[in-house]
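Researcher: Batch entry, complex prediction.
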Amino acid sequence: MGGPWIKLGWRNLGRNKRRTIITATGLGFGYFAVVFMLGWAEGLKAEMVENGTGLLTGQIQIHSEEYRPERSLYDTIGGAEGADVGALLAAVAADPAVAAAAPRVYAGGLISSGASTSAGMLLGIDPELEPRVSRILTGLTAGRLPNSGVNELLLGSEMARQLEVAPGGEVVVVAPAADGSMGNDLFIVSGIFRTGLSEVDASHALLPLDSLQRLVALEPSRVHEIAIATADPWLAPEAATRIERALSPLRPALEIEPWTRLQPEMLDYITLLDSWYWIILVIVFTIALFGVANTMLMATFERRREFAVMLALGTTPVQVVSTVVWEALALGVLSLLAGALLTFPLMLWWSQAPPDMSFLYGDFTMFGALMRPVLRVEIEPAQSLWSAGALLLTALVAAIYPAAHAARTPPADTLSGL
Amino acid sequence: MLSIVALSFFLSARESPREIIDRVDRLLRGESSHGVAVMEVVTENWERSLTMEMWSLGVEHSLVRILAPPKEAGTATLKASDDIWNYLPKVDRTIKIPASMMMGSWMGSHFTNDDLVKDSRLVEDYDIEIGFEGSRDGVEVWELVLTPRPEAAVVWGRIEYQVRKGDLMPVWARYYDEDGKPARGLTFGDFKTMGGRLVPTLMDMRPADKPGERTTVRYQKLEFGVPIDESYFSLQNLKSRK
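Model: Structure tokens for the complex:
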């Protein structure tokens, strides 16, 4: 089956070089299209997950079991007694997948400046630890970060606009406190932040953790959340399970949730994107299949006298089939080389420097994740291999009918010119 | 002449539900009033008691100032028409409560800011019908059903109100949400003569979704017809400690 039939198949590619080049280019471009679209979908996924979890949520969150969904001020980690936050952070950081962890306190309150008052979410953060977990503090558009221990805060850009207050300005913050009183105090706006998520920019104020605890009468040991960043978002579910095991002796019980459970709609969308892979693969290569089959059929039709001679000289139909199939396979390999030559430099380039697409579309948000208007691609070696396999398979399948047709060439009729 | 007498007799025997609510409301407020009350708030997480002094003029104006505990003494709430301001003595600032916080708790109690503003507007915002008229536990009562008018911006799906026929004293009010589920119940009690009128001196609010929690207001002193006018209910006066 091998031997001369491979050589014969390979040499036939040179019979009509232009046709071979066109077909190989077509197949190669199909390969590029598939790898590029899959890479783009991967890039979209990565962008969504990184921004969706990295902006504020973190990849894993720890709460008291009671905390969600009511998010009551009283349901702190460790209950009313609170917990040794430092020890908890250390225990969490011991996990190999965990990059950083930071405590947070939440309270609902009013922020007032002059005649304007806004209802807002007061988020108490540790100015040292928070930047390692989320990017919320990197979006500073004016001013500076608040200092721990003093009454300073950051306002979302939209809230600052509504309150008509600038860095250095003074606001009154009022929040129901854990002892039943109305916590109230003056705060200096140290800076303005902008995330691009309008609901966050219009409703969030960031305070040093200790200042917020003092305002709402919570002991320093009482926090609502520990937000965790993992080295890779996809490591979060496993890490959450390990942390859950490590912290399971603690009472009252904790709820440790990776982003896949905190933002299930994001995971659903990713599952949907994954199913696109097969659809894209099938569509592109089905189109290619008919193109290649057509070319091969033409090529074998041209050679029907040659096949007739071969068959007349004692070549078996199986050997005729094999030479056509080898030819198709050689074409497939050639196309793959051409495709890879086109695909990988481009993909490598785009993955390093994503092209700016802002001329087509601006920032947009998906499931609470801010998406940059760039064409971000991610190279997945497994997908490239799968696509290569699909390309060779396409070439083979496309050869079956022309090969069978060639093998059934009636020698006498063909040679007599019928 | 005879027909007029007959008509007036007919009216007093069958009072319109609107008139009942209106009269109950006026009985409790008078044209102007001044009083001192203790508010006890019990929640799952804490219990506290606030002593407060209050002034009201008609249904549009009221001022409440907290006298004790010391941590919150001086904190005051001013209601003028539809707006509420809080004065915070610790920071010496006055803040206006935004519309979005109207359903928020007033001073940590089970009363909302909305209760301070909208209670005076029952007659305007609701269609009122008599749901029951007769004897309950040996007392002749009306039970009024208040359904919001289509155009009214209110939060309750329905309010039921029981009023004693004999002396027009309210007995209880039950608030239902938009799905018709009970949201909270307000009970009146300790009917006593204060400031020359029979008034309920106790109000007890219990949320339906948090069993065991309550806010109880007890009047210690109440007088009517005090000499104050609209200028008393100013932001200036909200700040000043007398």
